[in-house]
């Protein structure tokens, strides 16, 4: 298939990451939010709030940089709760990493903290799950979390450094109807580059309540024309995660699966004897917790698409998955450009 099929949407502003050079580093297992769908809930309960020792973090960053890693995602838990976190970011930056931080905004809502950290990060993902405190705080189960997040956005926008900023919006039954309002609100931020719509995943905190949280794909995809219009006007890249590419129809190129960067995850884990040790996990594909039904066998995007969540199919079925051909992709692309 010719490469022009995979051209990104018109207003995409991507962080540039070389294939295979991406590191995801979990440095702390504490968080003030208690999101009902938290993907790290199991790890945080098992590791009981552990903070990876500073010397271990610094030596691992040095080691992996010598191995050729060029991009590091500092995450947790909530990484801004790490003591003097800005020193970790500065150390990584000075080693030559492109530094990406995933945060709920609590640390960055403090002007003094933001002023110390922001000079040393290149990319930032802020987790937002609704257009107001009533929706967002209900999902984080933490009063004041929306206010903190708005403070973080304000501080990031005001800082003179150039940042690539992403919103990660996890969609559940509680907030799906507010998608356009949420995008409209946060795309007003001058630094926002990408709005990622993430279908709730059936693991971590969401696993026991997945049936009560999950929404049919149609509830999301039916809103894409409206969302795409807002994103184009605001010159923000729009992406979708956790939805099979074929279900996006003429907006198939907005699938985040097509831009997945292979990565190595470094985290702490408990051994059978109760001790805590390093975990290294290589993720070359976007297949986490997903599979490909037989209907996908003939699809030309199998392997680029991440598939469908198995627990989702137990609730909603396969929703008429339709394998792509080169011809159908081109026809859909012509529709989206007309």
Low-confidence stretches: 1-19
- Order of SSEs: EHHEHEHEHHEHEHHHEEEEEHH
Q: How many separate structural domains?
A: 1
Helicity, as a percent range: 25-40%
| Number of β-strand runs | 11
Query: What's the CATH H-level homologous superfamily?
Result: Aldolase class I
Query: In percent, how much strand structure appears in the residues?
Result: 15-25%
Report Rg. 20 Å
CATH topology: TIM Barrel
**The top level CATH class name:** Alpha Beta
Molecular structure report:
This protein has 338 residues and is of the alpha/beta class. It has a single domain (17-288), classed as TIM Barrel, CATH 3.20.20.70. The protein has twelve helices and eleven strands. The strands form two sheets. Strands 7-6-5-4-3-2-1-8-9 form a nine-stranded mixed β-sheet. Strands 10-11 form a two-stranded antiparallel sheet. Helix 2 (54-66) packs parallel to helix 3 and helix 7 (179-186) runs parallel beside helix 10 (224-234). It is globular, with a radius of gyration of 20 Å. It starts with 21 loop residues before the first strand and ends with a helix.
What is the compact description of this entry?
This protein is α/β, with parallel strands linked by helices and 338 residues long. Helices cover 32% and strands 18% of the residues. It has one domain: Alpha-Beta Barrel (TIM Barrel), CATH 3.20.20.70.
Entry keywords:
11 strands, two-stranded antiparallel ribbon, TIM Barrel, 338 residues, disordered N terminus, 12 helices, alpha/beta, globular, nine-stranded mixed sheet, single chain
């Amino acid at each position: 298939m010719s490469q022009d099929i995979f051209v990104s949407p018109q207003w995409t502003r991507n962080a540039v990451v070389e294939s295979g050079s991406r590191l995801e580093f979990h440095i702390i297992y504490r968080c003030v939010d208690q999101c009902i769908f938290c993907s790290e809930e199991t790890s945080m309960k098992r590791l009981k709030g552990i903070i990876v020792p500073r010397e271990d973090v610094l030596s691992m960053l040095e080691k992996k940089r010598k191995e050729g890693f060029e991009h590091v995602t500092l995450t947790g838990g909530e990484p801004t709760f790490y003591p003097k976190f800005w020193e970790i970011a500065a150390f990584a930056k000075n080693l030559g990493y492109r530094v990406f931080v995933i945060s709920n905004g609590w640390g960055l809502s403090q002007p003094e903290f933001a002023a110390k950290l922001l000079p040393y990060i290149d990319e930032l993902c802020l987790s937002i799950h609704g257009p107001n405190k009533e929706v967002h705080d209900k999902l984080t189960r933490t009063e004041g979390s929306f206010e903190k997040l708005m403070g973080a956005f304000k501080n990031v926008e005001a800082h003179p450094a150039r940042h690539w900023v992403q919103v990660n919006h996890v969609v559940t039954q509680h907030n799906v109807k507010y998608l356009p309002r949420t995008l409209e609100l946060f795309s007003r931020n001058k630094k926002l580059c990408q709005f990622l719509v993430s279908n709730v995943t059936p693991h971590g905190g969401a696993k026991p309540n997945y049936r009560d949280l999950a929404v049919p794909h149609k509830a999301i995809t039916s809103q894409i024309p409206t969302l795409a219009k807002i994103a184009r006007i605001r010159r923000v890249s729009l992406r979708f995660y956790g939805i099979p590419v074929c279900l996006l129809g003429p907006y198939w190129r907005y699938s985040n699966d097509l831009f997945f960067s292979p990565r190595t995850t470094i985290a702490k884990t408990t051994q059978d004897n109760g001790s805590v040790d390093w975990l290294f996990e290589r993720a070359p594909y976007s297949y986490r917790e997903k599979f490909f039904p037989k209907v996908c066998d003939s699809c030309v995007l199998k392997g680029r698409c991440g598939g469908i969540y198995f627990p989702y199919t137990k609730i909603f079925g396969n929703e008429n998955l339709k394998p792509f051909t080169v011809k159908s992709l081109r026809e859909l692309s012509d529709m989206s450009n007309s």
